[in-house]
Design a protein that fits this description.
The protein is α+β, with helices and mostly antiparallel strands. It has two domains: about 110 residues, Fumarylacetoacetase, N-terminal domain (SH3 type barrels), CATH 2.30.30; about 300 residues, Fumarylacetoacetase-like, C-terminal domain (Fumarylacetoacetate hydrolase, domain 2, Alpha-Beta Complex). About 15% of the residues lie in helices and about 25% in strands. The strands form seven sheets. Strands 6, 7, 8, 13, 14, 16, 17 and 22 form an eight-stranded mixed β-sheet that branches. Strand 25 and strand 26 form a beta hairpin. The N and C termini lie far apart (about 55 Å).
Amino acid sequence: MSGLDETHDPRRTSWVESANGHRDFPVQNLPLGVFSADGTSRRIGVAIGDFILDLTAAEDFLDEEWREDLAHPVLNAWLARGPAAHGQLRQRLSELLSDERYQNDLDLCLIGQSEATMHLPCIVGDYTDFYVGIHHATNVGRQFRPDQPLLPNYKYVPIGYHGRASSVRVSGEPVIRPQGQRKPPEAVVPEYGPSRRLDYELELGMWIGRGNRLGDPIPIGEAGDHIAGYCLLNDWSARDLQAWEYQPLGPFLAKNFLTSVSPWVVTADALLPFRRAQPPRPEDDPQPLDYLRDEDPQPALGLSLEASLSSERMREAGQPPHRLSRGEASAAMYWTAAQIVTHHSSNGCNLQPGDLIGTGTLSTDSDDGLGSLLEISRGGKQPITLPSGETRSFLEDGDELVLTARADAEGAVGIGFGECRGMIVGVST
C-alpha cells in the first residue's frame, strides 16, 4: 500500500513494554495529544502504551526546527506544518521509542496516562458537523417522513451545519442536561424545561491541518493532505428540543450545549494500513458531481466503532458497561472524508489549522450497528433493557456513555483511538 514505511512494520516493538500488544497505543500508532501532570503547564505528548512521552522534556531528541511548534500548549501550529513534517516526526518518534539506545534517557520523559489530565488538543476555531451516515439519515428520516426518508439533495450534497466551537470539550467533561423549549404532540403551546429525550451520537471527528485561503477551494485530489488526524466525537443531542426548533434553519440549542471528543489525534499516517475501498454506490444512485470525484478512488476508513452505556445502578453493582452498538465506519459513510473537506471548501470557505469536522452519526444497516438511542429505541417506542433490569429510551441522569474505535487489518498491528466518555449529571442549578 502506498505510503507504508518502517513505522507500520508489524514486527516493530517498543522498549516501553506496555506498548507491545496494547489495544490502543502500540508503537505503530503514536497519536499526539495535550496533557498536564503534577501541576505542570499544558504540553504536547505522544501516547505509547500506558504512558505519554512528554515532547517538551524530550526536545533534545527532536529536530530543532520542530521545537517551537511542539512547545505550544495546543497542536494548532504543529498541525499547520502539513503532512511532510507530520510524517518526519512520526518516523523520529518511532525510532526513539523502538530503539533501546534511547531508553535510559527517554524513560525520564514518560508520564503514566493515569497520572495525567488530558485537554483539548487544539484551539477549535470552527466546528462543522456533517450528516454522511446514510443509514442514520434514513432511519431518522423514516420516523418523520415514512414515504421519503431521504430528501432529494442527500445523494448529491454532503449535508452539514455549523456547530458551536466554544462548547467542544475533551472526553470526561460532565454532560449537564440542557434546558430549552419543547412541544409534545398533544400540547397546544411549547413549554420550557430540561430535555427529556437526551441522546448521544457516535461519530468520527477530523482535525484540519493545513488550511486554505478564503476563496480558494480544496480540490478533491488534495483534500487528504488537509486532514491531520482523527478522533472520536459525540454530538450530544436533545431530541425533544431538536424536534421543535430544527425547522426551518436546522440544529441550534438541541446540539450546541456540548460536543465531546477523544483526546488523542490519531494521524492519517497511522491509519494508512487500514484504508479500504469505499463501498460502491447502488446502481440507481447518482454519481458524485465532478468536483467530488477523483481519478483515484477515495479510500474509506476501516474502523470498528462501538458505544457502551453504564447506569449508576450498574456501576454500584459492579456490572460492566452494556454495549449499545458496534459497526464498521466504512459501511456507514455515504461520503468520504476527502469529499467532506472538498465540499466544505467548495464555495471558497477557508478552513484553518485546528478546525474540527464531524462526520455525523455513523450507523450501519444492522440493528447491532445503530449509533444513537433515537434509532435503537425507535424514537422511544421500543426501550432497551439494561443488565440491571432498568430500561432506557433515552439517557437518564447518572448514565455514562463511552465511545471507542478500533482499526484492524490482516498483516498490520491494530490500533485504537482511546475513549470518548461523558456522564449525565443533571440540570445545572
